[in-house]
Amino acid sequence: MDFPTLLQVLDSTVRLATPLLLACLAGLFSERSGIYDIGLEGKMLAAAFCSAATAAVTGSVWLGLLAGIGGSMALAGLHGLSAITFRGNQLISGVAINFLAAGLTVVLAQDWFHQGGRTPSLLGGARFEAIALPFAETLRPVPVLGPVYAELISGHTLLVYVAALLVPASWWVLYRTRFGLRLRAVGENPEAVDTAGVSVQATRYAAVAICGLLCGLAGAYLATALQAGFSRDMTAGRGYIALAALIFAKWRPWQALGATLLFGLLQAVALRYQNIELGGVGLPVQVMDALPYILTVVILAGFVGRAIPPRAGGEPYVKER
Amino acid sequence: MSQMPKWADLVLIPLISLIVAALLSALVILGIGEDPVAAVKMMVTGALGSTYAWGYTLYYATNFIFTGLAVAVAFHARLFNIGGEGQATLGGLGVALVCLALPWPHWALALPVAALGAALFGAAWAAIPAWLQARRGSHIVITTIMFNFIAASLLNYLLVNVLRPTGSMDPSTARFADGTHLPTLHDLLAPLGIAFSKAVPANISFLLALAACVAVWMLIWRSRLGYEIRALGHSEPAAIYAGIRPVRTVMWAMLISGALAGLMAVNTVMGEAERLVLNSVEGAGFIGIAVALMGRNHPAGVFLAAILFGFLYQGGAELALWTDIPRELIVVIQALVILFTGALDNMVRMPLERLFLSLRKGRA
Amino acid sequence: MAADAGTGTSSAPAIELRCISKAFGPVRANRDISLVVRRGTIHGIVGENGAGKSTLMSILYGFYKADAGEILIGGRPVQIGDSQDAIRAGIGMVFQHFKLVEPFTVLENVILGTEDGALLKPSLAKARGTLRQLAADYELEVDPDARIEDLGVGMRQRVEILKALYRQADILILDEPTGVLTPAEADHLFRILENLKSQGKTIILITHKLREIMAATDTVSVMRRGEMTATLRTADTSPAELAELMVGRKVLLRIDKSPARPGRRVLEIEKLCVTDAQGIARLSDVSLSVRAGEILGIAGVAGNGQSHLLEVLGGMRPATGHVRIDGKELDLSGPGCDGRSRRAAGIAHVPEDRQREGLIMPFHAWEDSVFGYHSDPALQSAPGLMDNARIRSRAGDQMARFDVRPPNPDLAAQSFSGGNQQKLVLAREIERNPDLLLVGQPTRGVDIGAIEFIHRRILELRDAGKAVLLVSVELDEILGLSDRIAVMCGGRIMGERLASDTDETELGLMMAGMKGKAA
């Protein structure tokens, strides 16, 4: 593989890792507060549809972004309602939300746009444009570092940079603020938080809302930056890969960045090559597709360091005397 | 805590949940500018109005019985098997390998072996997540989701690179020999003097599904294994106290669950397509979750819920054919049913309990 | 100690409750409770399980809202709607089950919920200083940077007390604080409480251990069936009087029984060792024997290996060493070590926690009536199939013989009261006519009437020539039922005594880890 190709693959890794990273951080906030979320996929899908539909109608990517966040947060609210207020099964609620999004997006897209469950292609101001960082062109001739800066670091859409900044921001919120302390505490032992006079429900709702917000960014990125419009099931399992990355990262922000970059790389490679020669053995593309899932199972099995989820995860909190 | 009679818990709550889901779906239909009443009429005619319609409804219901039972058996051990999709995919592979392996002279010989193949492959695909849950404590929900994707990739690879006949562009196996052709409901009912549409996929697998309902009932409520599965599901420390081996019991529950999901492939792959294609499961594994939740994990409930979803599925297909309402509306209804019977259960239950409490007080 | 010690001039009582009532559906958990606790005193509240102590304290801490009544703190009426209100009113609570976040440090746990601002840094720094001060004032040293999961029970309790003090609590409520402490740790706790009292704090101590009430409190209230039956100066009362007030009639602190006639050795335990998943030794070189026709009681503070011993004997946990039943060696690991093979060897087991282990709560009583024995061929109608009709009819008879109320085998186990649930378990285990009966906490959470019934049944089994191994944290129960008593501390046997030759004081010393002289 020559240098320009490597750069291209890495560039596409960054693009593909971005929605995974946003969704993974979304799941991190939710699960750290003790609310399992297998509905990342559905929230992303809803956001992708809402953002693409709004952007298509209004021609404004910003309104699209807002609508995407709104759609995702509405589903997050539904998850909160069933998981927090009505103490239902969080896994089942997540499954339901995934189906709700999968069905509703296509039904509405068909009704509004009559294009077989797609939105119209987004043009111009209805999409996020690539941002050229300062001096990208001037520095390009510098050997190695120049192209890396110009191709790999510069030239992405706004949401890519936002996602990157969200990693340290999430870390800081979780470990350096009062809100983060309480959020982690409700995920570990909600009784301790409750008896300390802090509302478990409010803290968890806040976490679920952040999850909705970040999934909204992820979905809007898919429909208005990575691609130009919504198509049915366009998340294509990314919500589940993000979930896998979250486990891989052991529910930590920096590790989440690493895990999503790894899974993004796998996707980028699978996209570019049909078969890969590794030490004389042909690796079919399907292996690349399946690798994130296989790696997650290996991690879950505890063969490569154990992934211990937040202790109160999945358990509805019932106030006791 | 039981302020409600048992029948209310078993019948009323799923029923109310269903009505709420139906009302919300009607709102969606209204919202996209169609007439819900006309839609329901069309669905009833399209799914129940003729033997042709019934032939499709029962065909879909057969799938959902198998996947619903699969989810229900695992639920009794407090295991949430979302892997029905992958297990059914592998079941299809088992059926195809059996059907292609020998020049089967008659379906009566092929069916038991194919069913065995489907069950074994489905069970095998459930075995790894089961073992990881039982031995390593890996959460089975996550592992079974992962195994769905791995199954899809595996089947994709096998169909494209291994099983595809030379020269074919289609990612599918060769057609099965005529000797594996299963009798349809038309064939089965004709000797009884009942005229059933010839052009429908419903076949003898429906009877197999009915038998599976009875077998699961026996397993859960009459057998020693079922007793142990239920006990383990309610309390693991208690199970250990009673000398029930958790690892073995989890394995059995999941193997049976996977086998049931795999059996679905007898209906789709052998009974309908007569070759193995990509994505022959078409989400039936997930519908099994809704069916099990709605059927309260009881085989009789699963049967009724499966027929209901068969109706929705076939009715939805008719709607998509004749109106502007896409098939995905059924996915919405399915989501609402899962939501109300599984996750927002308490939203329906709490007011109902209050109602029964005040009724009882009123009587006293 | 005088009841007015330390009070001085302040006239308003620290806490005053006026006619507090609380009902849960038809159950009236608290009825017209009135109570006055003076500032700078230690006030005890005693009562049986279900007497309403916890409900009352939950009302004080804002978990429940009283249906009627008034709460006055320092003479002023207050509304306590949630924990935040309670904290603001100066009430701190140390729960029986600690409310700590295990992966967090001590410091993080202390500031949780009472941080000074949106950022943690200043709060942590301030708490560090305050903690140092509190440690110096009250003998409450804890490493502020230690993680809770690395601390022992006694330390965790200190963190809970520190949490309350950090929130400037003037009134400290402790719910069964010594249940998991060794006597030495308990003594230290009482020293801390004395310290707190002398600094003007008010302390409410909830317990069912009369000894602690007598030793530590200035005044004491007794609760029974939701009512406050008496409030007394501790110096003016006696354990016997308190016990009588708790139960509502004269209690026989001694259980009537005939002398034991020990026969052959049924159970022999030799050098039994258990190490748990964290690598901590839970049982070390335990050797014991139980003869036919005798009850061996195991005394000890909860968590000193008694549970592990029962679990090993019941086949629930692997171990090393030797266990023989009538001379036959039992498998202590591998496939032959499970509840089923133990039952086959003639061991019946009434587990310590009937709701988590002994019964499947949603099962019908008839299904639970064979739990553990469900693979008995006599209960199968065909290989692998249960004979449900037969099991149901047998269950009905069994429930009648053990006076389970109501004797309806079709009810779910969870709809019976604690005492009747225990009778279900006892019926199942005793009617198998075992050679050895293991019993853990036979009367925990059981009403007085059922206690006597259960004790009688255990004694009858002994008199029928069976061996009984009894584990209980209630010293009275151990002393009353057992013929011989072995004391455990830190996973070791500290010594054995004949029940007729020992008393609470000696056993208490041994439970604290002091080896008695050889029996």
UniProtKB/TrEMBL annotation, chain A:
An annotated GO cellular component: plasma membrane
InterPro entries, sorted: ABC_transp_permease
GO terms of molecular function: transmembrane transporter activity
TM region positions: 90-109, 158-175, 205-230, 251-270
Membrane topology: Multi-pass membrane protein
Keyword tags: Cell membrane, Membrane, Transmembrane, Transmembrane helix
Positions in coiled-coil regions: none
Signal peptide: none
Pfam families: BPD_transp_2 (PF02653)
CDD domains (UniProt xref): TM_PBP1_transp_TpRbsC_like
Cell compartment(s), UniProt: Cell membrane
Predominant cellular place of this UniProt entry's protein: membrane
Name assigned to this protein: Nucleoside ABC transporter membrane protein
Organism name: Rhodovulum visakhapatnamense
TrEMBL record, chain B:
GO MF, one annotated term: transmembrane transporter activity
Signal peptide, first to last residue: none
Localization (cell): Cell membrane
UniProt-recorded name of the protein: Nucleoside ABC transporter membrane protein
InterPro entries: ABC_transp_permease (IPR001851)
GO cellular component: plasma membrane
Membrane topology summary: Multi-pass membrane protein
Domain of life per record: Bacteria
Transmembrane segments: 12-33, 53-75, 87-104, 110-128, 140-160, 199-220, 250-270, 302-323, 329-348
Listed Pfam families: BPD_transp_2 (PF02653)
Keywords for this protein: Cell membrane, Membrane, Transmembrane, Transmembrane helix
From TrEMBL, chain C:
GO cellular component: plasma membrane
Keywords assigned by UniProt, alphabetized: ATP-binding, Cell membrane, Membrane, Nucleotide-binding, Repeat, Sugar transport, Translocase, Transport
Listed InterPro entries: AAA+_ATPase, ABC_carbohydrate_import_ATPase, ABC_transporter-like_ATP-bd, ABC_transporter-like_CS, P-loop_NTPase
ABC transporter domain: residues covered: 15-250, 267-515
One Pfam family, short name: ABC_tran
GO MF term list: ATP binding; ATP hydrolysis activity
Keyword Phosphoprotein in record: no
The family this protein is said to belong to: Belongs to the ABC transporter superfamily.
Protein name according to UniProt: Nucleoside ABC transporter ATP-binding protein
Organism per entry: Rhodovulum visakhapatnamense
Source lineage: Bacteria, Pseudomonadati, Pseudomonadota, Alphaproteobacteria, Rhodobacterales
